[in-house]
Amino acid sequence: MNKTPNSMRFTIGIFGCTNVGKSTLLNKLVKEDISIISPIKGTTTDSVKKAYEIDDVGAVLFIDTAGIDDDSDLGKERVKKAFLEMNSIDLAIIVLKNRALNKYEIALIDKFKKECIQTLFVVNKFDDGITNLELKNAIVLNLLKDKTDEVFTQIKKIAYKKNKNIELFDGVLDKNEFVILITPLDKAAPKGRMILPQVQALRSILDKSSNAFVSQNTNINELLLNFNKKPNLIVTDSQYIKEVVKNSPIDIKITTFSILMARLKGDLKQFVDGANALDRLKKSDKILIAEACSHRYVEGDIARVKIPKLLEKYLGFKPNLTYICGKEFNNIDNFSLIIHCGGCMLNDKTMLNRQKIAKDNNVAITNYGILISKIQGVLKRSIEIFAL
């Protein structure tokens, strides 16, 4: 459970005003003192995250956020960070007191409805006064005394529907098939480990009761001499897609780790359309390169060295590039194209939300791997196994 990446967890955000019992609820759910509890307003500043395991659900991530009614200058920044968590959650738990809703809570509920985020209400009954009559199907309990079994019951019901989503190789790979994974190790690869999409692909192949052969060799014809049958599928690092396609028999299916991840977490067709928008770019157009996580840039960095060189060669002019990194993803309307990283550290909710923002702003969006396949002239071959 502790080794499951946050990007693969069912994510539950806990929201509400200051001192309504958000941190108390988190501590009671996970049976640990994770969040500091105090009668002083604004005790929870930055979001507090806790990985946990729920039976019948699996690995989840709880996020305890700052109070949404903190109007101080510093508090407004905390509220802004709390709202950023909305982009990544699968379920929102809104904690309330047993009183009428205030303006902050009404606005919060409306925002979740607008974003179509599944919501669960927990009314913290501090005393024997009236319960919150403005809400239907709310769970009413005293967080200092009562058990949280009903909260878990509702989480399980919602998570069950979410967990029925597509798997990495659904519709692509059947039982007892053979896959070759081309995984060259460059300077960006963590020492002693494989990068996350490669690990996920390998595990998913095993889950399909199929077999995998992992190699750095991009000459498929040479690799095939080791086997008495052809592979059903080849999955390669995007940077080597052109070479792999060139050296592979035409009847073998080929795709990339990046394309598989784009299909798993987002709208693959929108990403492909975004890559094709490259042909419409003009010299005056601005391009945004979006990275999901922070890292130290190394020699030959894909976002700052390789992609700019590929773009300049393909477009015939030096592209006007801007970079962003982390959770911030706004003010994008002045860009003609967004090139996103593979998003291995983002969950599907976050990636789909970013694609929606791009679509709402009429901005084309693609990702590193799909863009590279486009520039290398092999995008059609890389996606032909998917029904787009």
Separation of the first and last Cα atoms: 34 Å
Number of helices: 13
- How helical, in percent, are the residues? 25-40%
Tell me the strand percentage band.
15-25%
Give me the side-by-side strand order of the main sheet.
Answer: 2-3-1-4-5-6
Order of helices and strands: EHEEHEHEEHEHEHEHEHHEHEEHEHH
Average pLDDT metric: 87
- The whole-angstrom Rg is 24 Å
Summing up helix and strand content along with how strands pair, one would put the structural category as alpha/beta
Poorly predicted parts: none
Instruction: Name the overall outline.
Output: globular
Number of strands: 14
Largest sheet, in brief, is: 6 strands, mixed
Describe the structure in your own words.
The chain is of the alpha/beta class and 388 residues long. It has 13 helices and 14 strands. The strands form 3 sheets. The protein has a 6-stranded mixed β-sheet with strand order 2-3-1-4-5-6, with helices on both faces. The longest helix is centred in the middle third of the chain and has 14 residues, at 149-162. The two termini are 34 Å apart. The model has no long low-confidence stretch (mean pLDDT 87). One of its GO terms (cellular component) is cytoplasm.
Which properties best describe this structure?
alpha/beta; six-stranded mixed sheet; four-stranded parallel sheet; 14 strands
Question: In short, what is this structure?
Answer:
This protein has 388 residues and is of the alpha/beta class. Helices cover 33% and strands 19% of the residues.
